[in-house]
Amino acid sequence: EREKRSHTIEYRKNYGKARPEWLAAKHHRAAIKLRYNITSEEYIALIASQNGVCFLCGHTSSRRLCVDHNHVTGKFRKLLCHQCNIFVGYVEKNIHLLNRCLEYLGSHKR
Predict the structure, then answer these.
(1) 3-state DSSP call for residue 56?
(2) What is d(CA 88, CA 65) in angstroms, rounded to the nearest whole number?
(3) Which whole-number Å values give the CA distances from 76 to 12, 43, 71, 102, in the listed order?
(4) Helices marked H in the chain — which ranges?
(5) pTM across the whole model
(6) Rounded distance between C-alpha atoms, residue 89 and residue 16, angstroms
(7) How many CA atoms lie within 13 A of 30 on its CB side?
(8) DSSP β-bridge partners for residue 20
(9) Which residues contact 98 (CB under 8 A, 6 or more apart)?
(10) What is the DSSP letter of 50?
(11) 91-110: per-residue pLDDT in tens?
């Protein structure tokens, strides 16, 4: 019985190592459930509802779309590409800089 158990544990370790895409998907499913309380089926439905593109820029991404959420309330907002998610996170913490940035860019048009 003990030998059978150790064989099973070793098999599972090797299974994940031999299939990195499968392992990454497994970890992603667990992470979105733990962090945002979203199942993988809900995540897939969200992707479909956004036609597989970032909600902000409308582009597809070679990476998975990020689950954007309010860091204070934890409430889910939309799926964003990595760049837009970083941008929104920065702007959210420094909202005053957004208007300054828009003014700056507006004053330096060609």
Answers:
(1) coil
(2) 14
(3) 33, 11, 9, 27
(4) 2-18, 20-36, 40-49, 82-93, 95-107
(5) 0.71
(6) 33
(7) 6
(8) none
(9) 91
(10) T
(11) 988 889 999 999 999 999 87
